[in-house]
Amino acid sequence: MNAGMRIAVLGASGMVGSRVIEEARARGHEVLALSRKPASDDPGVTPVAVDADDPDALRAALAASAADTVVVSLRTMPVDQEFLVGATRTVLDSAARLGIRVLVVGGAGALRSPGHEDLLVADDLAYVPAAVTAVAAAGVAQLRACQEHPGGDWVYLSPPALLEPGTRTGRYRRGTDTLLTGADGRSWISAEDLAVAVVDELESPGPQRHITVAAA
Ligand SMILES: NC(=O)c1ccc[n+]([C@@H]2O[C@H](COP(=O)([O-])OP(=O)(O)OC[C@H]3O[C@@H](n4cnc5c(N)ncnc54)[C@H](OP(=O)(O)O)[C@@H]3O)[C@@H](O)[C@H]2O)c1
To answer: Which domain, by its residues, includes 94?
Structure first.
């Protein structure tokens, strides 16, 4: 276990980012909260205002961070694949130069569909209705950007099909690149338990570069 890390969270104010920060702080890690309008009363959380659409600003924020690791949990509404991939590449470039580990919280669409190993969830209408195809495709493109990046230390965490605020149980199932479903066929986790999995992976990195989790 890797206690006392310095963790930068890009997307700090979001559903996932805010819970990762809470989990990391509860375990005694220091946090840099990066978003356009970050705020925190916690002395262990340093707010860093940065627009991830500005590569120079993002590079400068990471260079000044002295972080051990950076969690990327960015999202825009509507989805902006160019922004998402561009910001992810900028983080990967900077992090590789600075020796910072990267954990990307991406999309379920980048996983293989259970029982159809050649089919991505993004292309499986059973999981991804037409209305969210573009969101799923952006997640796939974000994973490809990681896979095509030369060198660097990254891991891409795909949530299950459904990720929403809930309660922290501290338990979850861990998989690799295939969507996880429970006995009831549901592919789900609370954002609180996803945050537990994120911080577990940061503290004890596993061997896989693409992982997923679901409620236990
Ligand atoms: N089932 C699934 O696959 C599933 C479900 C839900 C979420 N997710 C994924 O989980 C990740 C996190 O999602 P979320 O639900 O936590 O998103 P969210 O609540 O919408 O938060 C998005 C974060 O991105 C930040 N952000 C957006 N544009 C930015 C910019 N230009 N510069 C800096 N920060 C910016 C926002 O901060 P500011 O606006 O304060 O700058 C906010 O902190 C995403 O990859 C999302 O696709 C996957």
So the answer is: 6-108+137-215
Residues in the chain, overall count: 216
Does the Cβ of 36 fall within 6 Å of ligand 1? yes
Ligand 1 atom nearest 163 alpha carbon: 5
* pLDDT digit string, tens, across residues 70-112: 999 999 999 999 999 999 999 999 999 999 999 999 999 999 9
In 84-151, which ranges are E strands? 101-105, 112-113, 116-120
**Residue 144 amino acid letter:** R
Lookup: tokens for 187: 């592919």
128, part of any domain: no
Secondary structure letter of residue 4 according to DSSP: S
How many angstroms separate the CA atoms of 123 and 113, rounded?
A: 9
pTM (2 d.p.): 0.98
Tokens of 197: 């999995």
Task: Tell how strand 112-113 and strand 116-120 pair up.
Answer: antiparallel
pLDDT above 80 for 3: no
